[in-house]
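Q: Here's a chain of 155 amino acids. Please give me its 3D structure as tokens.
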Amino acid sequence: MADNTQGTDNPPVFAIEKIYVKDLSLEVPNAPQIFLAREAPQVNVQLRTEGGPIEAGIYEVKLTITVEATLSDKRAFFLVEITQAGIFRIQNAPEDELELILGIGCPNIIFPYARETISDAVTRAGFQPVLLAPVNFEALFQQSRQNAGANAPVQ
């Protein structure tokens, strides 16, 4: 029988161990008066990602999204912030690809969960659902790398 294990001694491993809400906050500071407002709010969305090792081959990736809805006179409709996280098993991945997996691949997996939780929280607060548009994490990752390079000290 031929030995077919050549080159597969340490194949790359990627597995989702757990997806969970690490932190969730919802504020409706001007209730109940804000429910009488007739104009549509302006919605501002901010997000950031971070990831790092928990132990050998196990990584946590966090996606934090802040959604703030205000009126033109700066009265807040609502403010919701979520940190959606995931634990991922990543083993035998090339070192140069690990940063891409943590900065692009894992946030792409986590985002739909955060999107659903935000929409649900805002709806339960008495507002119309907020449906976040898809996010290009690859572009955000490249932008953050460029910003980090621009802020690096000149030697």
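Q: Can you summarize the key feature?
A: The chain has one domain: 13-128.
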